[in-house]
Amino acid sequence: EMVVTDGVNKPWLMTNFSSTPVTGTYIQFNAANDDWTAYGKPTVYGGSLFFIVNTILAVSYRSTIAWSNPADASTGYDQTNYDFTWTIFATGISPITAIQGTNTSLFYGTANTIGEIAGPVGPNLQSSSTTASIAVNVGMAMPQTVVLFGQTVFFCDKNGRPGMLPVGGQPVPIWLQMRSIVDAANVGLPAVTKTNTTAALEPTLNLVIFAIWSPGP
Questions:
Q1: Comparing C-alpha atoms, which of 14, 60, 54, 59 is closest to residue 38?
Q2: For 28-54, b where at least 16 C-beta lie within 10 A, e where not — what string?
Q3: For 136-184, what is each residue's pLDDT tens digit?
Q4: What are the residues whose beta carbons fall under 8 Å from the beta carbon of 61, sequence distance 6 or more?
Q5: What is the DSSP letter of 80?
Q6: Least confidently predicted of 40-49, 161-170, 204-213
């Protein structure tokens, strides 16, 4: 199965790749089957699929994450007999911008911070996990730039500057290796940077490739 979300419609599972057009089924979020959307890219941690909840019935829930049963992306979340949701921040705190699962933990970012959750996935994740603040002066601001390569998470901050976070370590500002380019770039249009910036893993060449600033925003 392939999980698809575009930030406008609620996520769905592609179930028939060979049909024209392809077909799929929406992922039900709660017992009422309310319309919902997710923000950014989903991720996998502990065998479960995690989402940043964007809206439910057009109400913002960007401080909440939700997850599925292990190995079953269609069940869990806030469905009947499940409470696989966690509101990490109180209302008014910066919304969650990105999540990335690793073998040992789930990282979550805002525009200016990075946190970490480690614990068994399931109904007791919130009560039995350990949480840690990894950074309070840099964030995983752009979900489309978050790339896991081995045990290192690569990302861009709110100005489009690349960084990397080794699992168990602290963020490293790898953009300092290209300081002259950063200094010459137009970083005064964060909304444009947020829209255009992206990254991808090229495993054959062992490269993480960033496409950052638009030449003509």
A1: 54
A2: bbbeeeeebbbbbbbbbbbebbbbbbb
A3: 999 999 999 999 999 999 999 988 899 999 999 999 999 998 888 777 7
A4: 53, 54, 55, 87
A5: T
A6: 204-213
